Amino acid sequence: MSDVQNPLPRQVADAYVDALVALDPITGTYLGVPESARRLPDYSPAGQEERAELARTTLARLTEAEARPGADSAAERRCARLLRERLTAELAVDEAQEPLRAIGNLHSPLHSVRGVFTVTPTGTEEDWAAIAERLRAVPACLEGYRASLAKGLELNLPAGPRQVATVVGQLDEWIGTDRSWFQEFAAAGPVSLRAELDAAAQTATGAFTELRDWLREVYAPGVKGAPEVVGRERYALWSRYWNGADLDLDEAYAYGWSEYHRLLADMRAEAEKILPGATPWEALAHLDTHGEAVEGVEETRQWLQRLMDQAIEQLDGTHFDLAERVKRVESMIAPAGSAAAPYYTQPSEDFSRPGRTWLPTMGETRFAVYDLVSTWYHEGVPGHHLQLAQWTHVADQLSRYQATVGCVSANAEGWALYAERLMDELGYLTNAERRLGYLDAQMMRAVRVIVDIGMHLELEIPADSSFHPGERWTPELAQEFFGRHSGRPADFVESELVRYLGLPGQAIGYKLGERAWLAGREAARQRHGAAFDLKQWHMAALSQGSLGLDDLVEELSAL
Question: I need a labelling partner for 316 at 20 to 30 A (CA). Which of 186, 225, 359, 539 fits?
């Protein structure tokens, strides 16, 4: 690499990460930066402008770096391409003032503030002292967020009413009646800091309570009647942000329908083996009661841990070559009040905090195995964990940016969906019960493409469809369609719909990302012929760092 005075793209990218961590200590905590543990970001309009200015300055530095000798190497070129695409997409979202209506049930400043405490170190008294300071920082942080939402109201940039109602409900759960989530969390701290932690947790709870009341009494009436869907222009903006590509949305919509029909035929075949004459969803309902299940929340957490440990043991050396620190992954139970979908958190940069999968229980204590197996191949191994932990492992060969904050959602979700398919290809879905669960998960991703694009763009339902042919999609029709084509409970379906309304363009990245990964693998296979080595291809693909879908197929094909 070049010297600091004449940086190359990877150095520009890493300098951006350092500067971003200074502005966004939540990102710093996820990366494992100790100095971040005491602070929270500034979500006010001024804070947003600081981050936007950092992006603009970095793009200017990147242009200079790309002209320097050595910038045309494969490593520098790939990093530069990612950094330019990501920052340009983020600036487009910012310039459209989307952060002024950032309310949603899964991904918002509120969720970031609470979520960071679940990954903040708690091993020492000093760690807990930092947590107390961060809890005391919550009021100022939320006040900045409220200022942004208030400005959005002034500028007629409302969030959807359904998002607001859902988030108020989540805040009710976080705040509780006797003790809040923050008070429960702080109760695990050392006795020596008991009074300080209790007071700090009460301060944080009070700030969340004030914001909840403002959302309910001021913001909700202010956005009453606002549209829930975003329209083609805003959707294209967000689609680029989440997918790293300027997609042909009409082609993607048609692809969703083609996958729907393919999967429906496969599901009917598997359902016939389980409950002859039944529809796939009747067979899944039968399995909910009579199929293989795990009883107990802690028992389920342990069962999922064993599933991931077994997958690592059996895949390492055969289809992957895993470093020792990548082999460590922890199964966790998600905190109460989370959205319905399971999720994964990446290890810290030094692996002192391992990668973790999180199961929201939604008040349940019995979990059907058909719904767990493929989901944990997606969230854990060989899905999110193998990709994101491998990025962390090879970060010194890439850049911190490519391995962490430059992550493109559709790349990661596409790999995780590819991982589910891979386990099916390798024969790990050992019976019709587990395979129907896998196909149901695949169907959910195909339905996401249909309803996410369909309702936000208000597209027409195909005339040959058996579901409201010729009508135009609405959120109500989307929820009905999803409910008809899912084995999941009604509260999950509703949570998912709110998620799609609040994160336009994100949910389509699973299936479109999987398509990119499959296309790249097939192109590489065709190029190498009989010499194609799947294990070698997997490790090379997982060691590239993040890429948007515009670049992913090209890079995977060349491996």
Answer: 359
